[in-house]
Structure formats: structure tokens, C-alpha cells
Amino acid sequence: MPEIKVTPLGAGQDVGRSCILVSIGGKNIMLDCGMHMGYNDDRRFPDFSYITQNGRLTEFLDCVIISHFHLDHCGALPYMSEMVGYDGPIYMTHPTKAICPILLEDFRKITVDKKGETNFFTSQMIKDCMKKVVPLNLHQTVQVDDELEIKAYYAGHVLGAAMVHIKVGSESVVYTGDYNMTPDRHLGAAWIDKCRPDILISESTYATTIRDSKRCRERDFLKKVHESIERGGKVLIPVFALGRAQELCILLETFWERMNLKAPIYFSTGLTEKANHYYKLFITWTNQKIRKTFVQRNMFEFKHIKAFDRSYADNPGPMVVFATPGMLHAGQSLQIFKKWAGNEKNMVIMPGYCVQGTIGHKILNGQRKLEMEGRATLDVKLQVEYMSFSAHADAKGIMQLIRMAEPRNMLLVHGEAAKMEFLKGKIEQEFSIDCYMPANGETATVTTNPSVPVDISLNLLKREMALGGPLPDPKKPRTMHGTLIMKENSLKLVPSEQALKELGLNEHQLRFTCRVPLQDPHSDTDTLHRVYTHLKSVLKGYTIQHLPDGTVMVESIVIKVSSSAEDTNSKVLLLSWSYQDEDLGSFLSTLLKKGLPSGLC
Amino acid sequence: MAAHLKKRVYEEFSKVVQIPHEEAPAKKLRLSKPSKSAALHVDLCKATNSTDALQYLLQFARKPVEAESVEGVVRILLEHYYKETDNSVRLKIASLLGLLSKTQGFSPDCIIDDAINTLSNEKSHQVLAQLLDTLLVIGSQLPESPAIRQRLIEMACKHLSDTYFGVRNKCLQLLGCLGMADTPLTKDNEGPGTSLVGSKDVQSIISDYFGDQDPRVRTAALKAMLQLHERGIKIHEIIYEQACRLLLDDYEQVRSAAVQMVWVLSQLYPESIVPIPSSNEEIRLVDDVFGKISHMVSDGSWMVRVQAAKTLGSMLQVSPHFLEQTLDKKLMSDLRRKRTAHERAKDLFASGEFSSGRKWADDAPKEKLDTNTVNLIASGACGAFVHGLEDEMFEVRIAAVEALCQLARSSPSFAEKCLDFLVDMFNDEIEEVRLQSIHVLREISTHITLREDQLDTVLAVLEDSSRDIREALHELICYTNVSTKECIQLALLELLKNLNKYPTDRNSVWKCLKFLGSRHPTLVLPLVPELLSTHPYFDTPEPDMDDPAYIAVLVLVFNAAKSCPTMPALFSDHTFRHYAYLRDSLSHLVPPLRLPGSGLDLVDSSCGSGSVESAQVFLQQSLNRVNTIQNLDAPGAQDLLDFTIRDLRRLGELQTELAGAADFCATYLRCQLLLMKALQDRLWSMAVPLCLKQNVTATAAAQQILEETYKLEFLYSGLESRQVATIHHVRLQAKALQLVLTARTRQGLDLLMSSCEKFLQDIESFQRLFQAELPHLQDSFVDKLLELMPRLSSCKPVEMVKILQTTLRQSGLLHLRLPEQIHRATATIIEPTGESDNPLRFTSGLVVALDIDATLEYVQDPQNTVKVQVLYPDGQGHVIHPKPGDFRKPGPYRHRLITQVYLSHTAWTEPSQVEVRLLLAYSSSSASLSSQSLASKLGWSDSTDSPSPPEAAVEGTIPFSKSVKVFIMPKPTRR
């Protein structure tokens, strides 16, 4: 039986460095090629030596597909393609292709320039890598080669995030990447059609969470900001440059517009400006509202949000500032925080999770005195708020996607093992399908039952149509006679005559004959007649003929009577039928073996 | 054959000319056109190839065909059809047959045989489908003949087994449109072997195709079934299971139709019991359907989601248990139970803590959940609305909000529960959704009391820059109940902020506070000292009376004081003075108060609430009194009418509930009075040249009566046909009077002849229109005229005038019976106020936009009837039709017109005023609209009496608002 094998090199029972190998129908595909944020050593990148110990990956992989531009999904790409060596096609959507190099470059700068690492990929490598990228459009079926085809679906999550449907013959796999089943301010919800893949590989970050409505969170956020502004305070929102930041910007921008507010909103510059530019371009990837209104006004052309300058932080009056990085551990956001921390009118809103050890984490846990470098302490008087804006599907969303796609098997990646365990149980219980959760390096094997397409000759089909009812009824299977010819990788079902002709064979008739002894005192012709009347009474709806040459024909079955010379009472019935009439023939023989009923005349 | 046909065509050609038109006057000329069929025939014969023929047919299809020649055309088409080999031409012919059989006045039963005949010989599937479509058209043209129907249905059944989906579709459609409940049908496609199963009814035949392999056919089958339902045939419950299976179909249109189908079944058999698969339990069908449709709210296709969300709203019989599940969403985080923000807010409120700052991990998960109890797949109705309201597409969200509204209106407990969700929707990104949810909240607000935190969220929207949103919110606050005095304070504060930010909202905010005050007097009471900033020891400075914010506070306080007699004791001196001022200037906002030691006491106590009945009685009595007028002599009668009119007018001012009725009566009586005066002039008997003056007054009176009757008819809503008949009666009298006066001026016999003719027509149309009302009009003017009708129509004009004159003088007053509810259409222009002294300056020749904001009450169909008139000082006038989108409907019977009119003029030397007012347009067509019940009852489709508009007003319009003067100044262009 054919099998599909899935091996996570990263993201197996883990979050970070997503990299999943899939072999399907003789093709090997790498899904995502990410890095791990938590490590700075070799564990940062997936272990490509799993694929091959030495040499390039090109001959082992048919294609690489990147689901979206987050570094834990694409961070190892230049390393793999340029340093390990891969020359095959890399598929990603247009927005991902546009934004991905910006992030990679940023990542490279931090690692090499700031941390001083060597043996890291260079800018040129990023460029070379991006040259191998083939862009994808949504719902566009791309033929990687003759058999392998891929198709991208919208996934929400971040701009350009896609789910991919990978198909070889009739076997298929869907990889979700990261996705979001609830729409937000700038992106829509993930959607897939009922493609019924053999395996659905889904992320499971929030496997054990069911989230509250987005609206409450948004409203809370806006209310907090609004109140603070009205008090005359300054609001600092530390963000990561891409993704949530844009959502929050739109949220604030529309709110400002709606409420006619005048306080300035600043966005600390850097790579954001570039990214914003791409957001403006890829309107088709955003949600309904932005798509519908961009003709009048592109929502990403912010009216109220301006670029931030360092000196603005000291300006009097209320303002809102988005600044990077998101965890207040360094950079501009920390500088501004230090400036504003002393005033209780001000506020800092943390829109995401903060790693332990960062200032963000400390203040969220209520620490009011911070020790800064140089033994100085900082009194934190400003208000600290926490808002969770995360764009992964929660448990309900995952279940919803399963319902939409109707997979035959389920495979969970990109989540913690314990949480996956729970979701796995639920999936198996609710959908009664198998669910796998391989760890890194572990292979999950799914046997498939692919349907084999067979060409059927039109003649044969028409002939069968003529015999039965006019319409094929999917519920009632029908038997038909034909010859299956396997020739040069193709299967054909043809009428037997044609097959004979094609193969240059003579037709042979196969006939069964059978002798049934019978005790009957009558003459031969009478016996035959008695057989005839008997059969006539038993087999209704069949054509039974008594032919003048001393035979009885039931359909195509010939019955003759002969009597032995010595004993005229014991007669022998000779039955002969072709193998097509095997059913009827054997029935007749058993029937006649029972003898003729006495009541016959 | 062709020759024969041609002959027929020419025969027909001559027939067209010869048919004598019975009704048409004999002298009328009728131009005969050469028959279309002949031309077509020639064309088709000329056509050498199929493309040409198709072209001819296409051209032919663009022109209408007279009913008389349809049959000939059909014959020619059919003849060509048989000869034609090209499928597309045959297809076009088939479609033309359908089109032609729709021609009015043509009865298609004569071509049905041919159509069926062609059907049995046709090989092409597409043409077959089109032919079936034609049959469908024919069949629906002949609803009265069951035999033909039966034949058509049999045809449909025969072709149901076609391999082309289009043919099956059309067959199903035909069955749906024509199928009858009781006729068993033989399904003869199954071959002779199975004919024992044989006779089946339409429904089971259609439901067989629920499992068809083609999704389009499945959809068509569902639609056909729905069509049967629409035609009043009861659908069997058996198909329920099949329909439910189609809910899981792969194709969205099938699912969408299945949702409708299942819904229909739930409405037909709400109480029947269905088993839950994989358990022994059973539930009501309507609950089961509700659960299933709720499930569809998270469907993959948004069309289906919209459909499902909409459908949910109309399932009012569902058990409350299921209903409340739709809002249920269990949250968890890391397998721990978490409370929703809504629950947290509620707890916070219950614990009495006021708006805490957000604590880190305040939403920390609580107890650990048992993994087995967590149900991730929403079973049944679980969380349907939670999904619907968070949907990606705003269409779905709107549908969900509407459904919530419908369900909440019928279930107070559900209303309470859905409150949080609706309030959340105020924050939606799309304005339509926000607006809709505000409207919905208003509609269910009778069931609910807002908590403080909810009110807080609601009020936050007051700062919205969209005027519609704000106004909707004001409207909402008018109807809202709140629970604490803090809420009142909060609301007041936010409203004042709003007022400060958007001064144009003044009226709306005041009105809002008026209702807020009168709804919560006890909650306002403890706030009064603070609101009026009074102090027990110190005198505080007197606030500025022109400050809109201060007026707003006063409006709140005074309205609360109305039902809280202890409150005035807290007022300071200047408050009383301000009360007197406001009561005078803003009487619609400030209620009459019983103030100690104020002179107003007397007046106000006389018309307390509860006197509506007595006013009603008074109205009735006045009308009865007027009835006795016949017994009085002329001056007495006139006096009585005069007094009654005066009384009624005053009554209308005092009792706003009865204003419409009182006004209506008064106007009617005024008509009578005018008529009476005109008729009872002593000089009537005088020789004509001597009484020229009287003639003038009488003519004016007649004219005025006419005008008033139009007002009576079109300005008041709630009239029954009885009243309309009475009004028309008066109008007829006025016309008679005019006729008599014309006769007396002797302007020429021709004129008199034609006006006599016209009058006779008027009488006839009156008789036709009000056939049902004639018995009530005994002894009236019309009654007498109708008796004399034979004489009138034959006699000479002079004689007729004489008859009329005597009848007019003899006829008495027609008793007016009041309908239940009668309302006068009113309009108030809020903006421009007409107070501004600064002229609007603009360059002459260019335009200036003037914002108009007006409220309309009791206007039916304002989009078509309300116009804006602008009158320039030079007597020039414009009538502007506002766009339909400029009308908003804030409440029942109320409309709001917010529009811009463009003014332009040549240069003036100094600023001057233009007048702006609203007009109510009427016409015979709008008349038939407003009295549709009449039209349907009397078959009044083409009313012949297009009312001749009064000359004074703009044609066919009644001014119904006070005019507002706007100062404008077109400046000369600078060169």
C-alpha cells in the first residue's frame, strides 16, 4: 500500500523552527524552514543532516514551501539553501516573498553585527536565496513537476500567510502553517474548501485554549488608550515590527477617525516603514473592510499615525507611541519607557507575551522598582496594562478547520506535547480519525488508499448504459464485463472483443458441460418435454425454448437428454453452458440434480 | 403548408383592422400596422443560413407583438422550428414561444399541443430544457385548467430521467411550480419491470432527486420543494432526514437551499419528535433544526452563513434552553476554565468595585477542567451567535444581529443575555453593523436594564463622528432603563461632552435628556443639588441661560420633576425663572410642572394626563352636535360650525394624541362651512350681472374647498374608504358648485358643454370607486344625483345646471365618522433654523449647498412624496426631489430628511432671503398607493379622475411645513 511519511525536523511537539518533511507519492517536500528563537547554538536551525549527511539537498527534495514570513518559519532558509545547499524551487506567496528578506536581513544584522557571530549567512546569501523563490497566488494550482501540484489557501495570521494543499495523484496533504480562524482588524479568517486530504498537518499552539471574543479585548484596549489620552497622559505600546503592530495601528487609526481625536500617534521607524509599504500593496490579502474601502482610502495610509522622532518623546501633551522591540528589553521602546515611567498619568500597554528576564516581564508581574544598568533604579509609576492579541487558531478554530477540510488523518505540530495530547484525544473522539503528533525526527506513517484511475472505452460504457437504467446510481454498484488492459503505465477497461483485437489473440469459448443422471420412465422426448415444463414453471422471466432438434435452451444453456442403451429408465441430461452464464448454469444443474417433480405430466 | 400559412397571416392582417372596438368612440381613427407575423415570415424565409435566422429572431424579439397576432407568429415560428436543423435557432425559437405566450390578452392554451409535440421530437438537450421552460411559462399562464397541468406534469416526469442536468432542472422547476398535492403520478421512466411501484405523488418524485449526482439538480429539487411550499402545499415530514443530509453537501448552493428547506419543515412540524442519532434521546423537531442551522453559522461559505444566521432569527418556537446555548462559549486556557470578559465585568459590578485598573493576570484561569467534559465541537446550537457576531463578513454579522433582535424581542431572558454581545457590536469596524446593533438594542430595550459598565460602553459611542450613529444612540438612550444614579450622572456627563463636541446634536441631546429624566425621576432626585449646583448656605452664581449644556441639565431635571413632586423644593429662585422661560421657548421639551406659588398652576392642572378619553368624548359630541345642523336656520348653522371648528382646533392643540383627528374634523367642517356660505348667499337667486361680486367669493370658496379636500385626502394617514368617500363627496359638491358658477358667468356654451361632460364623468367615477360605500351615503348629494342620472346625461347643460343647483341647495351635511387612528402628516425643518443673520455668500452662477435637516411624521412613502421647495425673492421657485438615501427612519411613523439642496441665482446687490419649505406631492398614482386596500377591493387600477391640481400650489403638492427663511447673497463674479 502507498504511504505518506511525515517527519518534523522542527516544531514536532515544540514551538519554533518549523520544518517538516513530507514524502508523498515518491516526492519529498520540505514545509517551512524556520529557526528557533530560544537557542543561539546549532539547535537554532533544523538538523538538515537528517536528510543527507554530506552533500547538497537538491537531489533529495522536490520543493520547499514557506507558509509565512515569521522567522520561526523561514529563518533557516538562507542557511539551508546557500550554506547547506539547495537549488530546487522554493514556494511562498507574494507578500511573504516581499517581506521575508527584510526580516532575514534584520535577523542577520542582529546576529552578526550586534552579537558578532561568524559563520552566518550573508546579505548576498539572502539575495541568492530569494532568487530561488517561486511566488504563489491564492487558489492557484502550481505544477511543481508532472505529478506534484500545490495550491495555496488563505490562512489569516499575518499578511501573506498561506495554507498549502500538496497533491500527488490522488494522495494529498494540507499543511496549515500558522493560521487564524477569527478575523481581525486587518486580516480575514482562514478558509479552505472540502479538499479531503489524506493528512492535515495543523499547528496547535493554542490546543488547550478557547478564547474570548476579540471584540472585548479590542474594546478594552481602546478604552484604556482613550482614557489615558483624555487624562493627558502618554501611552507607550511596545510591539514587534510586523503583524500585530499593523493590526493595532489600524485599530487606533479607525478609532481616532471615528471619535474625532486629535492626539498624535507615532510609530517608531525602522523596518516598519518598509513593511507598511508592502501592507499597502497587498490589499487583496487583507480583510473585507480594508478591501472594500481601499478605493476611497487605503487603510494602511495612516492619517493619524506619523513617524516617530527621538525628540518627540519629550513633547508635552498626550500621545501614543508604538515602539520596537516588544518586550522592552532594549532599543527605542526601552528608552521611551525610561522617560515616561515616572509619571502616573502615562501608560504602557504590552500587547503580547514577554519572556522571563525582560523588563516587560518584570513590570507585568507588578514590579515597581527596576534596577537599570549602572546601579540606577527606576520608579515605575505609570500604569501597566496587558492585552493579548494573538493570531493563532484556538482549539475551537482547529476543530473548525478540520470540519472544513474533512481530512482522513490528522497530524499536529507546532505546539507543546501535553497540550497536543489533549487535542489529539478530542479529535479522535469527535471525528473518529487517526491523529498523530510525532516528535522531532520521529516519522509518522500513514497508509493511503488511493483510487486508481482507469480509462473506460465509450463503447463499453454505452453498452452498459443500454442494459441498465439510464442514470448511474452512486448507491447501487453495478457489475459489468470488460477487460482490463495494463499497458505502459496506463489502465484501460475495454470490451473483450477489442482487447482480443488489440492483443492479437483468438477468442476462445469456454463451455462447461455437465451430466445429470435422471431416473425417468418416459421416452427421451417426453423426458425432455417434462424438463421443459418443469423449468418453465420454476424459471419465470427467462426465455426457455424447446427446439425441434431435441434440445431445450434456457437463455444460452443447452439441455439434451440421452438414455443409455441397457437401462431406458436411467437417463442422462447433458447440460452445456458458456462461462458467462456460470450462475444460471450451476443453478440449473443443482436444480436438475434434485430430479423432476412427480406431478409433471 | 407555407402557402396556407401565408394565407392565414394575411387573413389575420385584415382581422386586425376589422375588429370593431366596442368601447372606443366611433369617430376615433385607428391606424393599422402590417402584422408582425407577416414580416417575420418573410424574414425567416429570406434567411439562408442559421446565423441569419438567429439574427432575425433576435431583432424580432426586441419588438412587442400585439395580442391578436401572437397566434400567427407562433405558427410561423413552429413551422420554422420543424424545418430548422441548427440547435441555437431552435433554442431561440423555443424561448420566443415562451416570451410570446406571456403577451397580455393572449391565451396560450392553443399552442400547448404544439409545444408538447415539439418536446417529444427534440433531441438536443439544451433545446429540450428551453422547451420545458416555455411549457413552464405556459403552464403558469393557465392556472385554472387542471387537465393541462396534469399533462405538463406528466411531460416533466417523463423527461426527469434525461442525462443533461438542465433538462432535469427545468423538469423539477415545472413540478415545483405546477405540481399539485393530491394527484398521484405514474413515473414511467423506470421501465415496465418496476411499474408496480408506479404511482407516486409530486413530492416524493421531487425528493428522489435530492440525491441526484449533479449539485445543480439537487438545488433545483430543493427549490422545487420550496416552491411547492410557497404555493401552499403541505410538505411531508418524511423528507426531513434527506434534507438534513443535504445540509452537509459539498456545494454551497445546495446547503443554502437545504437550510431553507429544513427551516420550512421546522415551521410546519415544530412539535414532532425526532431522535438524536447515536443516543436514545429525542427532541422536538424545531429544536433539532435550530441546532442544525446553528451549526451552519460556521459553514465554509459566507452565503450559507448569511442564510443560516437570517433563518435563526425567525425560529421563535425554539426552546429557551437551546436558545441560550447560542450565546454560550466556554473559555479555557491551558485546560483551565476561564471566565469571559462579560462574566468578569458582571462580577466586578456585583462586588461593587468601581472600574478597577487592569491587573496583570486578572483573567488568570481558575479551576482545572476535566478533559472529558470539554466539548470542542459545538454540539447543536452552542455558540452559534458568538460565531456569527465575530464573522469575517459583515453581511453575516448584520444577519446575526438582526436574528438576535428577533429572538430577543420574543424572549426577555434571552434579551438580557444577548445584551453584552450587542453592546460589543457597537465597536464593530463597519458602520452599518454598529448602526444596526444600536437599532436592535433600542428595539429590545423594553426588556432590559443596562448595567453601569454596559452603559459605559454604550456611551463611549457618543463620540463617534458619524451623525447617524450618534442619533441612533440618542434614540437608544431615550428608551433605555438604567439602574443607578451613577448611571444617570454618567449618561448626562457623556451627553454634555457630546454636546460640546458636536453642537449640531443639540436638539437630539435635549430630547434624549427629556426621556431620561421622565423615565428615572427617583434616580435624578438625589442628583439635583449637584446638577443645579445649589448649595445649602451659599448662593451660587446664576448660570447662563443660553448655554446649551445648562439647558440640557434643566431639561433633565424638569422632566424628572414632573413625576417627583418633592423635587421643586430643591430648586433655587433662578431655576423657577428659567423654568418659565424654557416652558415658553422649548415647550416640547419642558413639561408643565405644578410649581408652588406660580400662576401656571391653574392652566396645567386642567389638562393633566388621563383626559384623553374625555377629549375623545368631547370630539365625538362636537361632531354629533354638528349633525343637528339640518334643523337649524342658516345663520345659526354657520355659527355652530364656526364654534365647533374653533373648539376642535383648540382641542388639537391641547391633546396631541387627538391632534390628527381634531384637525381632520375641523378641516372637514370648514369645507362644509364654506360650501354652506357659498350656497346660502341670498343673492343666488338674483340676476347674474348684479351678483358678480358674490360670484367671485363663491368661486374662491369652491376653489378653496377643492384644495382642502386634497389636503384631507392626502395629508392624513389612517383613513378608511368611508372617509375617503366622504371627502370625494365634498369635492364633488365643490365641483358642482364650480359648474353652476361657470354656467352663470356664461362664458360660452362650448366651455359649459365640456365641463358638464367632465362633471358627469366625475360622478361616474365616484360611483365606480365607492360602490361599497354608496349605502352609507343615502340622502346625500350624490345619492340624489345618481337617481337623476338618466335625466342628467340626456338633458341640455342649462337644464343640468338647474338641477344641480337645486340638488346642491337641498343636500345636507354628510355625517363624518371618525376612524380609529388618524394622523396628520407633519414636517418640521430643524435646519436651517432661519435665525442666522450671516448671509450665505457665493458667486453668482455657481451653486451653494444648503444643508436641510427635517423630521417628518406620519408620512407614507416619503421617498416619493416629499419634496423641498425653494422660493427666491423674485418669485422664482424650485422643487427639489431629495435622494431616497437621504431619508432615514429613526422610529415608527417617523422619518428624518437630511439632505442638501443646491441654490443658485444671478447676482444680487444685497443679501436677501429665500424661503425653503417641504411639500407633500400627491397624484392619482400615489393615491392608489396610499389606498391600496381600496384599489384591491374595487379593482381600481386606472383611476380616471386624475385630480386637477389646485392652481395656487405647485402642481399636485401640499405645503406641509412652515417655511424657513435663509439669508443668501450671490455675489457678482469677479473678473
Q: Let me know the average pLDDT of chain B.
A: 77
Which ranges of chain B are low-confidence, i.e. pLDDT below 50, for 5 or more consecutive residues? Answer: 12-33, 186-198, 352-362, 599-609, 925-954
Query: How many angstroms does the end-to-end distance of chain B come to?
Result: 81 Å
How far apart are the first and last residues' alpha carbons of chain A, in Å?
A: 61 Å
Q: Provide the β-strand percentage band of chain A.
A: 15-25%
Taking all Cα atoms into account, the compactness measure Rg of chain A is 37 Å
Low-confidence stretches of chain A: none
Helix coverage percent of chain B? 40-55%
β-strand number of chain A: 30
| Count of distinct strands of chain B | 20
Describe it for me?
- The complex is a heterodimer of chains A (601) and B (975).
- With 601 residues, chain A is of the alpha/beta class.
- Helix content of chain A is 30%, strand content 24%.
- Chain A contains 16 helices and 30 strands.
- In chain A, strand 20, helix 12 and strand 21 form a beta-alpha-beta unit.
- Chain A is elongated.
- By secondary structure, chain B is an alpha+beta fold.
- In chain B, helix 2 runs parallel beside helix 4 and helix 19 runs antiparallel to helix 20.
- Chains A and B meet through helix 5, helix 6, strand 19, helix 11 and helix 12 of A and strand 5 and helix 20 of B.
Question: Which key terms come to mind for this protein?
Answer:
heterodimer; A: 601 residues; alpha/beta; seven-stranded mixed β-sheet; 16 helices; B: 975 residues; alpha+beta; four-stranded antiparallel β-sheet; 41 helices; 55% helix
